[in-house]
């Protein structure tokens, strides 16, 4: 379990320095991190499922689906912040091998909400939801 904690926190091969010990003493405990991860991930899944159920509502269903699906993806991404920490998560998201997928996914998140709220184009919102899925899977 300690090995898993070191790998997820990014301290696999390096010895803890004085600064790392200070950061560790002020950060969340492992149990709290896991609980936060599970709660955030469950909220993300619930939002995605709720969005899928709302898809079948006449006239506004597609917009509601786009909004809840996007909120579900944001919560799911936020859940990994509990395991790795915000800075480690951002560093991994913007590594050169993941940079294109990250930019496409973040852009699609924003464009989905724009197409749902400002442009009011349901087809565009659905297209951006599909692109979100592919970018997250990539």
Automatic annotation (TrEMBL):
* Top-level division of the source organism's lineage: Eukaryota
Single GO biological process annotation from the record: vesicle-mediated transport
Q: Topology in the membrane?
A: Multi-pass membrane protein
For this record, an example GO cellular component is: cytoplasm
- Give the transmembrane ranges: 36-57, 63-87, 99-119
Q: Does the record bear Flavoprotein in its keywords?
A: no
Instruction: Give a Pfam family name.
Output: Got1
> Which keywords accompany this UniProt record?
Membrane, Protein transport, Transmembrane, Transmembrane helix, Transport
Predominant location: membrane
Q: Say yes or no: keyword Oxidoreductase present.
A: no
Question: Where does the record say this protein resides?
Answer: Membrane
Record function comment? May be involved in fusion of retrograde transport vesicles derived from an endocytic compartment with the Golgi complex.
State the family named in the UniProt similarity comment for this chain: Belongs to the SFT2 family.
* PANTHER family given in the database record: VESICLE TRANSPORT PROTEIN SFT2B, VESICLE TRANSPORT PROTEIN-RELATED
**What protein is this chain from?**
Vesicle transport protein
**What is the organism field in this record?**
Pachyramphus minor
Its organism's taxonomic lineage begins at:
Eukaryota, Metazoa, Chordata, Craniata, Vertebrata
């Amino acid at each position: 379990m300690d090995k898993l904690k070191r790998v997820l926190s990014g301290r696999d091969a390096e010895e803890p320095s004085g600064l790392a010990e200070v950061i560790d003493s002020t950060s969340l405990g492992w149990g709290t991190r896991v609980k936060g991860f599970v709660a955030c991930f469950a909220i993300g899944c619930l939002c995605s499922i709720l969005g899928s159920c709302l898809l079948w509502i006449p006239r506004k269903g597609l917009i509601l689906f786009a909004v809840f699906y996007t909120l579900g993806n944001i919560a799911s991404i936020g859940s990994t912040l509990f395991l790795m920490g915000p800075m480690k998560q951002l560093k991994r998201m913007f590594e050169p091998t993941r940079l294109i997928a990250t930019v496409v996914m973040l852009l699609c998140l924003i464009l989905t909400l724009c197409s749902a709220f400002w442009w009011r184009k349901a087809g565009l919102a659905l297209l951006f939801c599909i692109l979100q899925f592919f970018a997250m899977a990539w």
